[in-house]
Amino acid sequence: QLSKRLTNIAQNLPRGAYFADIGSDHAYLPCYVCLNDPSAQAIAGEVNHGPYTSAWKEVKNHGLEGRIDVRLGNGLQVLNDNEVRQVVIAGMGGPLIRDILESGKEKLSETERIIAQPNIDARSIRQWFFQNGYDLVDELILEENGHIYEILVGDRGEPAASYDSSHLEKQLWLGPHLLKKSERVFHTKCKSELEKKEYVLSQVKQATVVNEDKIIQLKQEISWLREVLE
Ligand code: SAM
């Protein structure tokens, strides 16, 4: 049984996908996609030997060697130029996902869709999409085993299309689609974020050297979170 998180990622790949799953670990995602869609093909990339071996094992168990290639290497370096049409990078921190995209940009000229699932700091992905010609076409938020996950879907296109220039900073931080959809899980996330920010603000105010810029930023973030929760 594939996790709800990976199932939601799979649902955002088109039929007949030819995609790379970077940091694939057990290759559960590419196996699931290829088992459910006979026209799909994938490359599973892994930088570590252990997961690379488990990925091959999983692929062979399903007899999918002809459609899933498992490759050992760092980030997008496992890909040839223009090789895949979609890229998935899931289950890592946002800054690491952004660095993987940034350092392998030249491999993405034929990539129509990037699906990222950052465990923290989704802002760094939104910012990277915005600066690199990907339109953030959708965002999903879900809860599984006590964790809240965000999935960001970017298609090559007009990067500003999903943003409103007067709310850019707020939307880059919290997500333009998540703000619009305003789902229960998003509220749960904002509530816990609000508690954290209020605590940090109280600490920053008590510091011996008062950091005014930090206070202004925290107050701004707290007011954005309150707007969501109103
Ligand atoms: N993508 C899977 C998922 O979402 O369930 C696995 C996530 S697992 C927490 C992260 C995986 O990324 C690990 O197997 C790790 O070895 C791999 N990884 C970390 N940095 C990487 C990099 N620069 N290139 C390729 N794989 C990487």
Structure write-up:
This is tRNA (Adenine22-N1)-methyltransferase. InterPro entries: SAM-dependent_MTases_sf, TrmK. Keywords: Methyltransferase, Transferase. One of its GO terms (molecular function) is tRNA (adenine(22)-N1)-methyltransferase activity. There is one protein chain. With 230 residues, this protein is α/β, with parallel strands linked by helices. The chain has 2 domains: 4-161, Rossmann fold, CATH 3.40.50.150; 185-229, no CATH class. Helix content is 44%, strand content 22%. The chain contains 9 helices and 7 strands. The chain has helices at 4-10, 28-36, 49-61, 94-103, 123-131, 168-174, 176-181, 184-206, 212-229; strands spanning 18-22, 41-46, 68-72, 86-92, 113-118, 134-144, 147-156. Strands 3-2-1-4-5-7-6 form a 7-stranded mixed β-sheet, with helices on both faces. Helix 3 links the parallel strand 2 (41-46) and strand 3 (68-72). Bound molecules: S-adenosylmethionine. S-adenosylmethionine (SAM) binds at residues 6, 22-25, 45-48, 51, 74-75, 90-92, 100. S-adenosylmethionine (SAM) binds next to strand 2 and strand 4.
Q: Look at the structure and give the mean pLDDT.
A: 97
List the strand order in the largest sheet: 3-2-1-4-5-7-6
Question: What proportion strand?
Answer: 15-25%
- Provide the low-confidence segments as ranges: none
Shape verdict: elongated
Give the bound compounds.
Answer: S-adenosylmethionine
Give the number of domains. 2
**Helical fraction:** 40-55%
Written as H for each helix and E for each strand, in order along the chain, the element string is HEHEHEEHEHEEHHHH
Q: What is the annotated CATH architecture of the largest domain?
A: 3-Layer(aba) Sandwich
Number of helices: 9
The CATH topology of the largest domain corresponds to Rossmann fold
Number of extended strands: 7
Structural class: alpha/beta
CATH level-4 homologous superfamily of the largest domain: Vaccinia Virus protein VP39
**Radius of gyration from CA coordinates:** 19 Å
CATH classification class of the largest domain: Alpha Beta
Report the sheet with the most strands, covering strand number, pairing sense and barrel closure.
7 strands, mixed
How far apart lie the N and C ends? 38 Å
